[in-house]
Write a structure and sequence with these properties.
Layout (H helix, E strand, L loop, with lengths): L1 E4 L5 E5 L7 E5 L2 H17 L13 H11 L7 H14 L19
Antiparallel strand pairs: 1-2, 2-3
Helix pairs in contact: 2-3
Protein name: Phage integrase N-terminal domain-containing protein
Pfam family, one: Int_N
Organism: Marinobacterium rhizophilum
Length: 110
């Protein structure tokens, strides 16, 4: 990995993430090789495909509280909706939010 001079006098760049696509290219000057390596490393750092982010492990009651603080408080019946969602979360034993799947909950009559 890195920049090496070849037998022909050109510069070879070999870089890539730990697991994933590898980038290799030859250049006439070392400056061009360094620029290419910097660009590739920057793109890899911005790409989340090979560096997974941490899972969201917040509980449903915490997500409901966040929803109410950011949006629900501005609704005319926001307090009623929050009470209803709190009861639902308690009946479900307050699961981790990302374990809920769309369509897996029964429809709630308001």
């Amino acid at each position: 990995m890195g920049i090496k001079k070849t037998a022909t006098g050109r510069w070879r760049v070999d870089c890539g993430p730990i697991k994933g696509r590898r980038f290799r290219k030859k250049f006439d000057t070392k400056a061009e090789a360094k620029r290419f390596e910097a660009v590739v490393r920057l793109k890899m750092a911005r790409n989340n495909d090979w560096s997974p982010s941490a899972k969201d492990r917040r509980r449903l009651l915490e997500l409901i509280e966040l929803w109410y603080d950011l949006h629900g408080h501005s609704l005319r019946d926001g307090a009623r909706r929050r009470r209803m969602l709190d009861r639902l979360a308690n009946r479900l034993r307050n699961p981790v939010g990302d374990t809920l799947i769309q369509g897996s909950m029964p429809r709630i009559a308001g």
